[in-house]
Design brief:
Distance between the termini: 29 Å
Radius of gyration: 18 Å
Number of domains: 1
Strand content: 5-15%
Shape: globular
Structural class: mainly alpha
Number of strands: 2
Strand order of the largest sheet: 1-2
CATH architecture: Orthogonal Bundle
Largest sheet: 2 strands, antiparallel
Order of helices and strands: HHHHEEHH
CATH class: Mainly Alpha
Helix content: 55-70%
Length: 142
């Protein structure tokens, strides 16, 4: 069991860091009366509007079913709308109200993320991104 101690310690540190950072960054979004996951959908649409539910699911690392439920809740609040795009795909897009909300919330969110991530050097941030992609199977480690 001794030989796996570093793995347990590393995993524990990663888990604790993720929990602390999530609270520190996403604990500040109550101004929009959004859950963390709802904010993640709006944030993803802020970057890729419009997007399919599957694209959003990949972007925020949740199942398509979960994202579909989140979208339904955001639709009820008139923050997003489902429609067909030029390619006849079913997509989700921000409404005017949704765009205004994310445009209001995102600058403070971005500043907070930059402050938190500023604890690491740019090289450390790049290395952390690379390591996280490896965990998600998106980087061969080369």
């Amino acid at each position: 069991m001794e030989e796996n101690l570093i793995s347990i310690q590393a995993f524990s540190a990663l888990r604790k860091s993720a929990c602390a950072l999530r609270y520190e960054v996403y604990g500040k979004i109550s101004a929009g009366d959004l859950t963390v996951r709802q904010f993640a959908v709006l944030e993803a649409l802020h970057r890729t509007d419009p997007a399919t539910v599957s694209e959003l699911a990949g972007e925020i690392a949740l199942s398509a079913a979960t994202v579909g439920r989140l979208v339904a809740g955001l639709e009820k609040r008139n923050l997003v709308v489902r429609k067909r795009d030029e390619e006849e795909r079913n997509v989700v897009a921000l409404t005017t109200a949704g765009g205004e909300l994310i445009n209001t919330l995102f600058p403070a969110h971005r500043q907070l993320v930059e402050k938190v991530m500023g604890r690491l050097t740019e090289a450390e941030q790049a290395n952390l991104s690379r390591l996280c992609r490896r965990f998600m199977g998106r980087d061969s480690g080369a």
